[in-house]
Amino acid sequence: MTKRKNVHGDNRLAAKPAQEHLPTLRRKAEQGDANAQWELGVCYHTGQGVDEDKTEAFAWWRLAAEQGFASAQYNLGCCYAKGDGVGEDKVEAVAWYRLAADQGVASAQYNLGCCYAKGNGVEKNNVEALRWYRMAAEQGEANAQFNIAWHYAHGLGVPEDKTEAAKWYRMAAEQGDADAQFMLGRHYAHGLGVPMNKTEGARWYRMAAEQGEVNAQRALGICYLGGHGVAEDQAEGLRWLRLSAEAGNVESQKSLGFLYDLGVGGPVKESEVAKWYRLAAEKGHVAAQCYLGVCYRCGKGVPEDHTEAAKWFRLAAEKGHVTAQHFLGLCYDQGLGVPQSKTEAAKWFELATQGEPGTIQRPTGDPPSPS
Asked: How many CB atoms lie within 10 A of CB 335?
């Protein structure tokens, strides 16, 4: 699911193509020109006109940074944060980010906020994180705007305020940030801090989905399947779900297998049903593990294999999936895939009676709130 952005910082180095012939640039750098030192560091870091050498890049940036050159200070912070050309050192990263941030470098302000949010190189402090995010956000840094929204949405360092969250998500969304577009879509779809508007929700989902945001692709697919804010269209709904599933979204993988299983969108090969259940099941999706077990029990899309069925039922049953517990009880009761044991069967049947039976339902609404 979508989550607070880049809490380790984005570490995108300040860089630009060298503006001067390399020998001239080197001469100026050796004479102490801070801008030339920074540019020469960029050349070494990117392999522009010289062999790529991260250690040499770091050395030139340090010379520029020690003269107060803000972009070089920011780059040193990035180097220390990820051990690029120097040993990783979160405390040093914070020190250099702070020097650049104090000079108004938005990326440094954002990364410093991330350090405070995560407790990287500094004591975790959501209030201080927000202070630095705001400085960056006021300069138009979309990642910082997103994180401010996230903090308001979850009451991190500020009282929870869905209206403020929606406001900041909108700022980032209007700059084209796909994660923010998805979250703004959720706010409209559920009436979080803005009047509920399914059409507006679907519109923002689409913007994010077209940029490849997998949660938005899933949400938009569900909109089409249920006619939420768009005309109901099963084929279009399945298309967006499949895009999300193919990108690795586990919920979409399970849902796609489930919808194919139900025959939504027309007949498909049973092997497609089992394929999507397996992809989700292998990532630990509990319901998909149960459904894959059913496939093996019934020979749906895979060869009938009671041992394999019992294996998948057990994985889901041990995580509390009631239907899987019932099926595992049946396996023991009938001696299918496991040694017959009335005692084990009774144990799993009893566990299954303690919860609500799992039911197969067409998915509606939106993905659960990110956490």
From this structure: 13
**CA dist., res. 195 & res. 183, Å (int):** 15
CB 93 within 8 A of CB 73: no
Q: Report the alpha-carbon distance of residue 278 to residue 270 in Å, rounded.
A: 12
Residue with tokens 């209007």, as numbered in its chain: 174
Q: Which of 243-247, 348-352, 356-360 has the lowest mean pLDDT?
A: 356-360
Crossing angle between the packed helical segments 162-173 and 142-154, to the nearest 10 degrees: 160
Dump pLDDT digits (tens) for 122-178.
999 999 999 999 999 999 999 999 999 999 999 999 999 999 999 999 999 999 999
> For the segment 67-78, what is each residue's pLDDT rounded down to a tens digit?
999 999 999 999
What DSSP line would sit under 29-62, residue for residue? HHTT-HHHHHHHHHHHHHTSSS---HHHHHHHHH
Tokens 């894959």 appear where?
292
Q: What average pLDDT does the segment 255-273 reach?
A: 93
pLDDT exceeds 90 at position 8 = no
Model pTM score: 0.86
CA distances 59 to 11, 56, 239, Å, are: 18, 5, 51
Written as six digits, the tokens of 272 are 């497609």
Q: How many CB atoms lie within 10 A of CB 192?
A: 18
Tokens of 130: 């927000």
The per-residue b/e assignment along 68-90, b for 16 or more CB within 10 angstroms, e otherwise, is: ebbbbbbbbbbbbbeebbbeeeb
Do the Cβ atoms of 175 and 142 come closer than 8 Å?
yes
Question: How crowded is residue 221: how many other Cβ atoms within 10 Å of its Cβ?
Answer: 28
Tokens 């399914």 map to which residue? 198
The predicted model gives 227-233 an average pLDDT of 98
Contact predicate 268/262, CB 8 Å:
no
Provide the token pair at 63. Answer: 């010379």
Q: What's the chain's average pLDDT?
A: 92
The whole-angstrom separation of Cα 238 and Cα 265 is: 7
CA–CA dist 285, 263 (Å, integer): 21
> How many Å apart are CA 45 and CA 28, to the nearest integer?
18
